[in-house]
Write a structure and sequence with these properties.
It is built from six helices and no strands. It is mainly α. It has a domain of 68 residues. The longest helix has 30 residues. The two termini are 47 Å apart.
Length: 115
């Protein structure tokens, strides 16, 4: 059974073994230069447009992938014997339809953080 403060004793003992990164000591000595060098650990402290554009690009790719899979699944279900005109209309609307949900995301990516 651990006594009060026992967790810190265990962390200090592990850090003293020199076979693992002393995370607690590293975070206590963290400054802006360290955090900027290891940006993947401190993504949101980067200059304003970078995190929003990176996160937004990943979300846009996810949106397009999910949208296209849903459109293909619907087309397979709805058009087993397609009418050519109806199929063309569906594919044009489905092909351009992802733009409307993407607009707020793109606007957020361009705007950056409000300070």
């Amino acid at each position: 059974m651990l006594k009060p403060g026992g967790v810190l004793v265990v962390i200090d003992a592990i850090a003293d073994r020199n076979d693992v990164a002393p995370t607690l000591a590293m975070y206590e000595r963290t400054d802006m230069a360290f955090a900027s060098a290891y940006w993947h650990w401190f993504l949101l402290i980067q200059p304003a447009p970078f995190p929003e554009r990176l996160i937004g690009a990943v979300l846009l790719l996810l949106l397009v992938a999910v949208w296209s899979l849903l459109a293909m699944a619907f087309a397979q279900f709805a058009f087993s014997h397609p009418n050519t005109i109806a199929a063309w209309i569906f594919y044009v609307v489905a092909g351009m339809g992802w733009i409307f949900p993407a607009m707020p995301l793109i606007k957020w990516m361009e705007g950056g953080r409000k300070t």
